[in-house]
Every structure is written in C-alpha cells, then in structure tokens.
Specification:
mainly alpha; Chromosomal Replication Initiator Protein Dnaa, Chain: A; elongated
C-alpha cells in the first residue's frame, strides 16, 4: 500500500499544471506570430479604421440632429398654436381642454382627443408624434400614432361624431374675426 503525505502534490496534478503552462506558451507564441504577420497588421488597421469611421459617423449624426432641433425650435410654427387646436376641438366636442390633456381614458374624452391628435398632425407638420403626445398630457408617440389612425378611420364616416367635431374645429380655427373663413 502506498501512502501520500498530506502536503505532497499528486503527480497527476503536477503533470496537468505543466501541460497547461506548456499549452499556454504555445498559444502565446502562435498569437504573437499571427499578430506579427503583415496581413494581420493590415486587418487590424482596417478594423480600427472602420470603428473610427463608424464612431465619427455617429458623432456627426448626433451633432446634425442637435443642430436640426435647434433650428426647428427657432423656426416659427407652421400652423395654429397647439392651444388653439385643443380649444377648437374642446368646443366642438363639448369637453374642456383640461379633459383633453388629462389622464382619463373614457370614450367621451378619448374620441375628441383622437380628433385633436389628427388636427395637430395635419395642421402642425413641424410637430413630431412625441411632441404631440407631450402636448396631450405626456402620452407616448405610439399612442399618438394609434389615435391618429383611429381618428382618420372615424372621420372618414361623415355621419360620425368625430367627423362633425373635426369639421367644426377646423371651421373654428380658420374663421377670422370679421366672419370670413380661411381655406386650409
């Protein structure tokens, strides 16, 4: 019977460590040889150049977006003020502006809100869906797009309440103080 002392390493463990170190040195030599090849150097340089190009393109796009947003903020609005659109829809649908921009989801509020979304998107092309959503109490852009699609569908039916509200709100928005109407 063969006894092993408590602190004496097993031969198998030592052999595994030695082979692992030998394999690591072999891999390190192969990597060093591969990196030193001219084709590898060209490949590394091309990858670095591509990453730099992508980062420059991203930074240029961000800067352009900021500049466009600055110009957009300084441009005069392209249509009636948002509050005027909301007021016209509120009057046509017999609800308050506060209800239009409020948190309620009840049908009697949501349907006029959809008409307001449609009018804002038509009369204020300078506004994004996100900006329209913010004007309507912080709604997200996907809700605005769904509301717009719903309003388009309902306004197409001339007998619907939405079609009546839409027509009345447009008439309120484009009627001058002297009683004449502006064609939009």
């Amino acid at each position: 019977m063969h006894f092993i002392a408590e602190n004496q390493p097993l031969g198998i463990v030592e052999e595994a460590r030695r082979r692992r170190e030998q394999y690591k040195r072999y891999i390190d030599r192969r990597v060093a040889a591969a990196v030193d090849r001219p084709s590898t150097q060209r490949q590394i340089e091309a990858e670095v150049a591509e990453r730099v190009r992508r980062e420059v393109a991203r930074l240029v796009a961000e800067r352009a977006a900021r500049q466009i947003e600055d110009v957009r903020r300084n441009l005069p609005s392209l249509g009636p003020p948002i509050v005027d659109i909301l007021t016209a829809v509120a009057r046509a649908a017999s609800v308050s502006v506060g209800e239009l921009v409020g948190p309620r989801h009840a049908c009697e509020i949501a349907r006029p809100r959809h008409v307001a979304v449609l009018l804002m998107s038509e009369l204020r092309p300078d506004l994004s869906a996100l900006q329209i959503g913010r004007a309507l109490g912080g709604r997200d852009d996907s809700s605005v797009l769904l509301a717009r699609a719903s309003a388009i569908e309902r306004v197409a039916d001339p007998t619907s309440d939405e079609a009546r509200w839409y027509a009345q709100a447009r008439a309120l928005l484009f009627t001058h103080d002297d009683g004449t109407r502006e064609v939009a």
